[in-house]
Design goal:
Layout lengths: L18 H7 L3 E7 L4 H12 L6 E7 L4 E3 L4 E3 L2 H8 L7 E2 L7 H10 L3 E5 L7 H4 L6 E5 L11 H7 L4 E8 L9 E8 L6 H24 L2 H5 L27 H10 L6 E8 L6 E13 L12 E5 L2 E6 L3 E9 L6 E2 H7 L4 E4 L1
Parallel strand pairs: 1-2, 1-6, 2-5, 6-7
Antiparallel strand pairs: 3-4, 7-8, 8-9, 10-11, 10-16, 11-14, 12-13, 12-16, 13-14, 14-15
């Protein structure tokens, strides 16, 4: 697949290709979907299914997604998860656009040729310039996994979990040039479990977001959503900047709850890491290990007794890491470089009686 596919023909998505279905589609408003990662396929699936309903008001006229990239450890150049999902559903490859940037002249020319009434974005991953936003008369609507104006930016779910929030949600908002600052059409709130990790919460929020989108689409398509949408209070806005690999290290001079929330937030990518020292009791040899910390919990009783401040012990099913404020982080699953994820018990048994300390 080329990095920027040319438009060859205009058709709508439908699993059947009869002339009657094409005539039916011609009366519907053309919609363009923009998304890239796996979580975006939930939204695309909902749009595909809704567009084929007898009373549907719209058709999926085109899909815009990130260009093919190397995956499977760099061995293969593969389309984005959204592109692959669309192809699997029988969507025309001619109508899947993969510009490097959404401001490319050729891409914008092809988009204008479709005359889309509305664009929907869900984790697309590219900044949309004004030239793009001016094309659909009904605007561009984004599914954002936070309760706007909270957590505007690239990593709303991760930053919310890192902050230990008890409540979050998903918002439908019109896209403007300012970052995630457009009027909010609707939102849905939900409580946050203190063990849920970012990939699971992200998937759940986009699932809820797709339901919210389908519910609100009639008002978006008839223009009434623009009237009812509420401007955001910029004074209450918080930012959710992109996560960097350098942030993945855990330092145990912080309280256990802070570290636990970071493990949940950074699960998947980039993960969280810690360095420990393994000491051979027989010869005193020190070996430094880098551990990826997969699953944790905060020790509820904080009564790990009889250990030095840097000692890591094994209690019941967990590695107990002493932290600031007399708190203890219990690590339930770990991963050594190049190895599979294992339980804390399996890791501890592999030490064969050697001591372990924080570095």
């Amino acid at each position: 697949m080329n990095s920027s596919l040319m438009l060859r023909r205009f058709c709508c998505f439908n699993t059947s290709s009869s002339s009657s279905s094409l005539n039916s589609c011609s009366k519907k408003k053309p919609l363009v979907f923009l998304g890239s990662p796996q979580v975006s396929t939930t939204v695309l699936d909902a749009l595909f299914n809704a567009s084929t309903a007898p009373d549907s008001l719209f058709q999926v006229a085109a899909i815009v997604t990130q260009p093919p990239s190397r995956r499977d450890r760099g061995k293969k150049v593969m389309p984005s998860p959204v592109a692959q999902y669309a192809l699997n559903r029988g969507f025309s490859s001619d109508l899947i656009f993969t510009p490097e940037k959404a401001g490319e002249d050729m891409f914008l020319s092809n988009l204008k040729a479709l005359q889309p009434e509305l664009c929907i974005t869900a984790a697309y991953g590219n900044i949309l310039p004004r030239k793009f936003l001016n094309i659909p008369p009904l605007g561009t609507v984004n599914i954002h996994p936070s309760l706007l104006p909270l957590y505007r930016g690239a990593a709303p779910v991760q930053r919310a979990l890192q902050d230990g929030v008890k409540e979050t949600g998903v918002s439908l908002a019109f896209t403007v040039r300012a970052l995630d600052a457009g009027p909010v059409i609707a939102c849905e709130r939900l409580e946050v479990d203190d063990q849920i990790k970012a990939p699971d919460l992200l998937e759940f929020l986009f699932s809820k977001g797709s339901e919210l989108l389908i519910h609100e689409l009639p008002s978006i398509l008839d223009g009434s959503a623009k009237v009812k949408a509420k401007p955001q209070d910029d004074s209450k806005a918080t930012l959710a900047p992109k996560i960097t690999p350098e942030e993945s290290w855990l330092y145990f001079d912080k309280e256990a709850l802070v570290l636990h929330n970071k493990v949940r937030a950074f699960a998947g990518w980039p993960g969280t890491r810690a360095k420990v020292v393994v000491i051979d009791n027989k010869n005193g040899h020190h070996n430094i290990l880098e551990l990826k910390i997969i699953t944790t919990r905060v020790c509820s009783h904080n009564n790990v007794q009889g250990i030095e401040v840097d000692d890591i012990t094994f209690v019941k099913d967990a590695l107990a890491f002493p932290c600031a404020g007399c708190t203890t982080l219990e690590v339930l699953e770990v991963q050594l470089p190049g190895k599979k994820v294992i339980s804390a018990a399996a890791f501890w048994n592999g030490l064969r009686g050697q001591k372990m300390k924080k570095l």
